[in-house]
Write a structure and sequence with these properties.
By secondary structure, the chain is mostly helical. Helix content is 72%, strand content 0%. The chain has helices at residues 5-13, 19-26, 30-39, 47-55, 70-122. Helix 1 crosses helix 3 and helix 2 (19-26) crosses helix 3 (30-39). The termini are far apart. GO terms for molecular function: DNA binding.
Length: 123
C-alpha cells in the first residue's frame, strides 16, 4: 500500500519524535522507516494505524490524495504532547528524588533507634 511519504515526514518533523524513536515506538527498524519515507511504500498495512496513533492523526491523513491543512493543527497537538511528556519526565524525576529522601529518612530513623536501644541497654 502507498502512503504519502512527504506528509508522514512532515508529521514526524512537527512532532516530538525523532525518526529513531518514532520507528522504535512503531515497532519497525529505522532503516524500514527510511525506506517508507523514501518510497512511500508501506508493505504491512497494520502499521498505518500505528503511525497515525503515534502522530495524533487519522489513517486517512497519511494516505495519498488527502491533502488537508492538518499539519498545523496536528503540530499544535504534538507540541502539547511534548509538553506533557516533559511534565511526566519532571514528575518521574521528582518521585525518584522523594523515594531517595524517604529511604534516607528510614536509614536515619533506624540508626537513631539503634542509638536509643544502646543507651537504654547501658542504663
Amino acid at each position: 500500500m502507498m502512503i504519502n511519504a512527504q506528509k508522514l515526514q512532515r508529521y514526524i518533523d512537527t512532532s516530538a519524535w525523532t525518526q529513531e524513536t518514532f520507528a522504535k515506538q512503531a515497532g519497525i527498524g529505522r532503516t524500514t522507516l527510511h525506506t517508507i519515507l523514501k518510497t512511500g511504500e508501506l508493505k504491512k498495512e497494520k502499521y498505518l494505524p500505528v503511525f497515525a496513533e503515534l502522530l495524533g492523526v487519522t489513517t486517512t491523513d497519511l494516505l495519498p490524495g488527502n491533502e488537508t491543512n492538518t499539519i498545523t493543527q496536528r503540530g499544535t497537538n504534538n507540541t502539547n504532547t511534548a509538553s506533557i511528556k516533559g511534565d511526566v519526565s519532571s514528575l518521574q524525576q521528582r518521585i525518584e528524588q522523594l523515594e531517595r529522601e524517604n529511604a534516607l529518612k528510614d536509614e536515619l530513623l533506624n540508626a537513631y533507634k539503634k542509638l536509643l536501644d544502646r543507651g537504654n541497654a547501658t542504663d
